[in-house]
Amino acid sequence: MEVISNAKQGAPAAGKRRLLSIQALRAIAALTVVFSHFRGTEELVLPGRTLLPSWTWVGFAAVNLFFVMSGFVTALSVQAMRGGYRDGLRFLWSRCSRILPPYWLYTALLIVPAVLAPATFNTVVDLPRVLSSALLWPQGELPILMVGWTLVHEAYFYLIAALALWIVPRRHHTLCLGGWAAVTMALNIYATDAWPAWLNLLASPFTLEFIVGIMLGKYWRCLPSSLALPAICVAAIILATAAMGSSILDPSYGHHPGRVAILGIVSILVVLSLVQLEASSRITPPAALVAIGNWSFSIGLSHIFVTSMMARVWRRLGPEMPLATQAVSLAAFVAASLLIGWASYRYLEQPFARWSKVMAFPRPHVAPR
How far is CA 289 from its chain centroid? Predict the structure, then answer.
């Protein structure tokens, strides 16, 4: 999805420009996720001889950055919409038609082998789990395609955003976001593991990252561009201080509100800094990162298969394989992740994106409320 921002609030379409820094951030986040999963595979299959550094665990924090960017992009994508049920449906259609076809395909690639050869694959594919996974309905376990757990949150975010477009007058959107945040925080205080999965989804602190991302997307141009460099410096200080002074950033803390708060604040500051630096022409994101950012969704879905293949190959080669062989194969698997991500974007995401625009709901011709 192209990230578009008006040169000025309310500027005509001719004044729109892409925010390449968001795509570059997506690339960095996707690559850190890949490296963190590859590092985990190294530790599992080849204990004591990992090549990837231990700091690649930071890839587990990329989800916080993704949720903030998701809110930011949502704000930009709806800024030209007037509201009403048609715009709500158009927004929901644009998001579902983008994320569901690739997600369904990669989920099917896990389901079919598990059904045909259940003794070989340990994936549980009973009908309730298949339906819950396909519909991104929250459940007590990970979806069949495990990285789909983030899409469960995204589906919830998009549904609420679509309902707000339909029901809430535009002038009250900020107040609505505040109410959503307040309800989320109140639920989080009382949330327990005994709650049903859908209620724990409503209480997840990840929702606050999406909400603040929307607020940032709505108002970032109102902030002085001089904040860009201080913001990135503060983000680095917060992250370094938290990493040295506490174990709360460890991935095992998962949805812990303190961990989400720290990583969410860092993500917000990073997004703010880079978009302001780009808008003021102080940075130009590298074209390679922008391209990988375009493929990031497909990379996130497909790299799990590459990770599985890597584990199988390394188990076959055994722990006695030369370090050079391990290094070359690791580089090959990284390249494979990028290649498959590109192919998936080029031949799956883009065709569906073109089709979804053809099938999209027409814009309503009503005055803004």
Answer: 16
Average pLDDT, the chain: 86
3-state helix/strand/coil string of the chain = CCCEEECCCCCCHHHEEECHHHHHHHHHHHHHHHHHHHHHHHHHHCCCCCCCCHHHHHHHHHHHHHHHHHHHHHHHHHCCCCCCHHHHHHHHHHHHHHHHHHHHHHHHHHHHHHHHCCCCCCCCCCHHHHHHHHCCCCCCCCCCCHHHHHHHHHHHHHHHHHHHHHHCCHHHHHHHHHHHHHHHHHHHHHCCCCCCHHHHHHCCCHHHHHHHHHHHHHHHHHCCHHHHHHHHHHHHHHHHHHHHHCCCCCHHHCCCHHHHHHHHHHHHHHHHHHHHHHHCCCCCCCHHHHHHHHHHHHHHHHHHHHHHHHHHHHHHHCCCCCHHHHHHHHHHHHHHHHHHHHHHHHHHHHHHHHHHHHCCCCCCCCCCC
pLDDT digit string, tens, across residues 348-365: 999 988 887 777 655 544
For the cut 80, the answer to whether the pLDDT of residue 284 exceeds it is: yes
- Percent of the chain, pLDDT > 90? 59
Q: How much is the pTM?
A: 0.88
Percent of the chain with pLDDT over 70: 88
Averaged pLDDT, 329-348: 96
